[in-house]
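Table S5 (text form). Sequence records supplied for joint modeling of the two-component complex.
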Amino acid sequence: MIPELGQLALVLALVAALVLGVMPLVGAYRNDAALMRQAGPAAMAQFLLIAFAFGCLVASFVANDFSVVNVATNSNSKLPVQYRVAASWGSHEGSILLWTLVMAVWTVAVALKSRHLPRVLAARVLGVMGLVNVGLLLFVLFTSNPFVRLLPGAPEGRDLNPLLQDPGMVFHPPILYVGYVGFSVAFAFALAALMGGRLDAAWARWSRPWTTAAWCFLTCGIALGSFWAYYELGWGGWWFWDPVENASFMPWLTGTALIHSLAVTEKRGTFKSWTVLLAIMTFSLSLLGTFLVRSGVITSVHAFATDPARGVFILIFLALVIGISLTIFAARAPRVGLGASFSLVSRESMLLGNNILLVVAMAAVLLGTLYPLVLDVLDAGKISVGPPYFDAVFYPLLAPALFLMGVAPLARWQQAPIPELAQRLKWAFAIALIGSIVTPLVLGDWSLLKVSGFLFAFWIVAASATAIVMRLKAAPQRTLWAKLGSNSASYYGMHVAHIGIAAFVFGVTMVKSYDVEKDVRVGIGDSVVAGAYKFDFKSVGDVRGPNYSGMSGRFEVTRDGKPVAQMQPEKRFYSTTKQTMTEAAIDHGLSRDLYVSLGNEIDSKTWEVRVQVKPFINWIWIGCLIMALGGVFAIADRRYHLRRKTAAATAHAPGAATAT
Amino acid sequence: MRALRFGIPLAVFVLLVFFLGRGLWRDPREIPSVLVDKPVPAFTLPVLGSPDKKFSPADYRGKVWLLNVWGSWCISCQVEHPTLLALAKSNVVPIVGFDWKDKPDAAIKWLAQQGGDPYVFSVTDLDGRVAIDYGVYGAPETFLIDKEGMIRYKHIGPLDDKAVAEKLLPWIRKLNP
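The corresponding structure-token record, covering 837 residues in total, follows.
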């Protein structure tokens, strides 16, 4: 009964999405307020119905209803309950349903927050989002229905892929999707602006917090996925340039460019058509990522269910959404006009340079991801593109971007004299240079790559500090506290995010330069030395979990004779899926991670063991969190909320008192 | 003319859709082997369980047969095993096992645990030297060899019932009229 209710709710949600996708847009075209007013209720109805349907799916998983195909193939009665809940989005069908749910949440959030917007703009934004969700719901109902029954029901389920039975997997997909789908708001704002022909500073200001919020989620989602791969896949790597990872990284790159471009559009009224194109590109890449992951055109370690019928549907959807929006762009953007001019060296030009670098980086990732496919289609052979390509392409693109990141916040708008910039930044540069040469010397191993990595990390921090200090000095207030308060939250947000990048670059440089990795055969009672650490292999015993059995090794780690950690890597065999999983043991620390994983058993006393010491690897993910924190600062900026309140107050004066 | 610039993104996208659309009908896992339609690389390897006996592909000249690469350490081979057992039972084609980078004891134990031995016999390639000649880069892999000792078809990854019915059996029927 519950699955049928979910199914019914989905059909009704499609109706709500159709109402949302058609009526407000027609209303905006005819300037019919009654039609435009349908947007809010329709968005709310769509949200409630999809949330109900999703609840039905979760309920079926929790109740072990193996008469539902999706439950029978992705769950098991022995699976712990939190993973049964997570299994509801572990499958293809469930994850697409989660997509539509997240889309509905963003739509309803926009509907609730859009009361102060010009009515026509709000109607168009919500209408575009409704149309996108119509496509997604059709996809769910026709090719990926999670509520299909299995008659007669299975006595037991086939169990969730053991790789996904992990806390990281419980949170990674929802957060990532919130980010992906969040860019639909910027996309809808861009299309609405193109339709209305109004692309001004106010439009950019409305789009900015939404875009930044989506970007924060995407940043956290990617970081969580990378962290999950690091500790769960058991290889000790943190980024593999896998097509699925690339699919999430591409919208991040253009999304980052979009955030910066929106800032210029708001502050200077320029970059307009470029901003709109970035907004379209970012959401298109989110959709393209879904296509790549879900259609099976590209092989990846994330081997999800693949099906050409689904691929054809997503491709048609993709072609319609992106094709139509790019056609509107081609038709309308020439009329948007150019903004204020700027000289060759100015903050605008630096942000433009940064934008171009980010987009070229995205294109490089896209090329690397699709190149095997293109060659195959052209019958030029099957190849695969791996990390060497991406590493080689990425470094030269990121280096100038990291350099500009330090300069741009100190550069003046419109025109920034180079001597003045050099004067302002000379100390920052000196500090970064000395730090980057001294650090590798102290650590005992010197190479150009290391120096340049440290140089950029220190440079960004020093330049950001310089920028903040100069601002504070110039502020007219007397006390430090008042001076601090004179800058906007988004100004600090920018620097926090940049420092997050610096932490990230520092972590990557440390790991790439100084990690120690040993693959050895170790007998019980023997030990392995890696770096300053000694790993004593004490024993191996049996372990038994709810749906797996396996072996667990015990290692004692010492440094200079002092105990550091007890580590217990496991090898698990999941009986239902017949899969063996390596559960690495990791001892986390701010300055290093110790990593032990069990390989094959050679005989009852000897094992293949991989031991790694990874200096500062956690800074990679901490850096990502700091970036997202910077985004939170930016969203919290008073200027978005103050104007919103005053605008709302003037628009709905009678209701204002009750609303607050 | 200036307005045309704004159509560039659309043009790029149309090209992309073309490739994605064509790509849908391709299987990225289907990797052509350079060995197909080439003579099977020669080897002489001991037979699993009775190391005094030796086998080389020339012994099977005049037969259509399968060479299946497996190992007791290989998880996907467990997945494939029931399919191989069923195929062996049907007596359509002799299956020779190619025990790759394995220990004979572990291999024999593994076969017993899997509920049967689908192979006529298995040869043991303990150090994996011969597998290099065959371009093996992951077990399981399966080669179909014809009466003249030519490799006619190569399957990468676990065989399932569908692959046997749609790919292997038609080939075998063609070679064994």
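Note: Strands of chain A lie at 516-523, 527-530, 533-544, 548-559, 562-567, 570-574, 579-583, 585-587, 592-603, 606-615.
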